[in-house]
Amino acid sequence: MSSAINTSIKASETVLTTRLTNQDVQLEQSIRMLSTDIPATIEGAETRLMHRFDGQDTLLEDAAQQHYVQTLYLQDQAQDVLRSRLLDALAFPEMNERRNTIEGRVVDFGETYSWIFDPAGEGKARSHGKKPHMFVKWLRTGQEVFWISGKPGSGKSSLMDYIYQNLQPRGHGFAHLEAWANRRPVRLLSFWFFRPATSVLLKSLEGFWRSLCFQILDIDQDIAAKIRANVDRAAPNSLRACLVKAGSHAQSWTNIELRSWLRYLLDHSAFNYCILVDGLDEVPNDHEALLDAIRFIAQGSNKIKICCSSRPEALFQHAFQQCPSLRLQDFNYRDIMAHCSERLSATRCASFEMKIADRADGVFLWAYLVVEELRRAAIQGDDEDDLERRLEECPSGMNELFTFLIERQDTFYAKHPKSYLRLIEVTVRNKLGPLSLLEVFVASQEPEMLSCNFPDNLNAQFLARLDAMAENFEANAVVRCAGLVEVSEQDIDGYFPETFPYKALDRVHRLRAGFIHRSAQDFLVDSERGAALLQACGISELEALRRVMTARSVIFLVNDNSSSDASILRAARQIKGASWTGFDSEVIDHTLRTVLKRTPRVFPPPLTENKHSNVSHVNHVDGEDLLCEGLVCPLLSPLQNIVFICCLQFGLTPYLKGKLGVLEQEELTLVAGFCASLLLDLDRGGFWPDGADYDYEILAMLKPHLSWTLNLTLCHYWPGADFYLYVSRPFWQHIRAYSGKGFGNDTALKALRCQLEALDVSGSYSTGQALHLRAWFVAEDLQLVCTEPDESTALVVSTLAKDFDIFKINIILEPSAPGVQFYQCSPRGLERFLEIDSSTSESLHKAFSESPSPFPDSAAECIADILNRRIASLTAVEIAGIVLSHREWGIHHCTFSDGQFHAVFYDSWLAWKRRLMDGVLDQDFDADPEHDPILNEILKALEEEKTRR
What sequence ranges are listed for the domain DUF7791 (predicted)? Predict the structure, then answer.
């Protein structure tokens, strides 16, 4: 039994040993497999993780690249906005008018003037014994000024236009400029003075400065960013002020300001510039100031050179005696020969070209007029002897030639003259704007034809009759004016509709009539023979003005595409006093009714008892009309508002007198007060053109009908905020100034008091007693002075608080010491007013009255000081609202740090915001948000701002 047990035990041991051995083998295999799989598993996991990280890196890189591209795009967009604001501020519609007129005369120069860019021709004169020009040498190596002089009619402006076209990139002469610039980029600037221009900006230094600044900003697209960054602190404040939101163009600037702008732009631009200035003698006054401007530009930098042209007047000869120059008449001989050959080649006088060129003595206009005279005679059948006799009889001087051409006029035309010359001369001399050939045509018709049953007579039958008569009018007008006028294509607003069936009228409407040259107008005005020619036209200057006004109104009334009445009212303004007729009033009545019909206006609703409804938001109205940008009387109809505003805007004194004469006493008092308030403008010259000439005549007319104590309710339009605000005050307290330039200037305030005294200030105050006017002064991209609203409530303030800093001011019209007191301030972002102490008031008055900027840096520092003095009265929410209100430039931003407000520049304000958003708080605050309610509110506002974006 024990043996069996032993055998069984041994068998169990053997089985157990075998099982353990197998398990050992399996365990060893498992361990071996694990030792192999774990690194592989780890390696696989690492590989998968790396792939994931690489994918995330790629996504992050893509996101970063996308963010970078988007940032660049936004920066480019922001920079484009800045450039647009600056360009809008400087632009004026007539900027290129003169050059376009010159280019319209000469579409293709051919070989004319090609000698100016011929280096080989510089050493030899084109006329025997004359001094050679060195223009190409000056272009390539010279500095400062090159002067082109020439007799009247020698073609100076045409040569300057040829130079302009060929100094553009890829032009014939551009390589010469590139040689001078020595691998720097180079561009051309230009300005074309023109004395007969309607716009004063084409014949003044202001237009000169503005145009050059505009062109630099248009060429150098990076310079706006330099102005904003202002790294070297050299950018003029008034220039930086134009970086703010749209509206800066409403301002005007002094020549000193604009001159400083140009110097900054020239110094900071990446380009070299060659500047062409045509017609120095076309500036009516102060040639010395113009020459100083030329020297200022030319001597300020080696990156600048100037080519200018003028008649050879003594002042210019002395100023440019040391400069390289050329006399144009010395180089015109061959070009005149070529012109004669081209025009006379197929006529019997083809051989006269040398004789004409000799007689012309370099005066292209003389040659042109003589050639056309001979060509007409040749076509009419004159033989060669007659033609030569005609040439010999042509006098050499321009005035004598004009007289000769008039005397050689067709005898029928001489016996039966038309009014064309008088109409054109009156329009040009009185600066009534461009005159279309259609206006000349309509104005030359018999007055009874236009006035009979006006305006019901302007029907299809009337237009068809005019259309038939206008068929050959273009040629007839030129011939009847003895060649003194020319007709050219013009760009106009208000072409006739495409469906307009009267094609002859449409054609002459697209043409502009004007003198062939300034010397032609001078001849008519200054010479005895020219004056006699105007007298022979058979109509007086007064009648010519009335005809131009009527013709413009007729064309306006029959042209549904036209909505501008300004040219009609400018002509009406020249008809004075007793010369005004009932028909004149009828013309203006129908014109203004049509204006209102074609251009719907948004007027404020009637005044109500609900104060909240008395802040009326409106849509801005573009165009020449100023009704929505001034005062509106809600108690008058829209048409009455238009009538009386236009009377004041254009000085239509006799028309206004007629309108006042038919009113009942109560309405007369209302209208007189409204008109008087329109004249009480602190910003004289800004709203009403040439206002000082007729203000006092109108004031004297209004004076008997005014009440100094009766409240007059008017709607004040607030630019920028885009709403009307109802204000009820006596008429003399409805003051405003839209640019605010000089509002605190003693001269402006004294002028205002003089106007009030002209209305009989003793009616309300004793003579010598001070007048006090309470007003609001709003400062941003422009300055607005406006009568204090009836209710200075949170409603009005909250409407403006996000966009404006508002000051309550007291305008003191002391006879001896006028001035302005600032007594309360509502900083941007705060919807209530804070008191201002006397010392801060003086600082603000000094800042705003002396600085060219609409919001000087020192004023921003005053606001920070006001806030710090009243900091205990401000809540955390108010402080957050103030510091996070957005300004777009300058030192007009506030940060809050170390328990104080600080006036800082835009970049510093952005850096402060970024610190807080990134959680870097200890530089500006001692406590964390949980323990600092101001910091907490600022961070909450920043988070909300981030969410909105």
Answer: 410-536
